[in-house]
From TrEMBL:
It holds the Pfam family GyrI-like. InterPro entries: AraC_E-bd, GyrI-like, Reg_factor_effector_dom_sf, YobU-like_regulator. SMART domains: AraC_E_bind (SM00871). Signal peptide: none annotated. This is Transcription activator effector binding protein. PANTHER family: TRANSCRIPTIONAL REGULATOR PROTEIN YOBU-RELATED (PTHR36444:SF2). It comes from the Bacteria. Residues 1-155 form the AraC effector-binding domain.
Length: 160
């Protein structure tokens, strides 16, 4: 499981956010409030969903560390943001893109590979930008055949 290295352009997102920790995970609550209302969002681009995390600097992945999590879609315009939702500009930049295959419940194994094996042995280091998962048409939540892309913000360890 090795990543593609991609340069992501700036993106406009509209969605909902909650503050949480890995220990006090409110992901189901966040998506439960977002999904019924996503039809209210105008100017959507595609069908992909963004599950985005914004961590403190430097990121702390301990179970009790808090972060902001978003459930969002990409849009072409911030015109008419639905009530109870917010606009967010995803900065873009250099990302390592991993494919997670399997149920969402197996995500921890992929996460450990990325941060304990791949990243320390790569020519990259973590950059302080948004982390996100792209949930496309192959995403099926806890289905064993589910697929999602994991986008990790990176920068070169030793810039040339």
């Amino acid at each position: 499981m090795y990543p593609k290295i991609e340069i992501l352009p700036t993106k406009k997102l509209i969605g909902k956010r909650l503050k949480m920790s890995f220990l006090d995970d409110c992901t189901a609550e966040l998506w439960g409030s977002f999904m019924p209302r996503r039809k209210d969002i105008l100017h959507k681009i595609g069908i992909d969903l963004y599950s985005m995390q914004i961590f403190e600097s430097p990121p702390n992945f301990k179970t009790d560390a808090t972060f902001e999590k978003w459930a969002a879609v990409e849009v072409s315009s911030f015109e008419a943001v639905p009530e109870g939702m917010e606009a967010y500009t995803l900065a873009g930049g250099l990302y390592a893109v991993f494919l997670h295959q399997g149920p969402a419940s197996a995500f921890q194994k992929t996460f450990q590979f990325i941060f304990d094996e791949w990243l320390p042995n790569s020519e990259y280091t973590l950059d302080h930008r948004e982390h996100f998962e792209l949930l496309g048409h192959k995403y099926k939540n806890n289905d064993p055949s589910s697929e999602e892309e994991i986008w990790i913000p990176i920068k070169r360890r030793n810039p040339a």
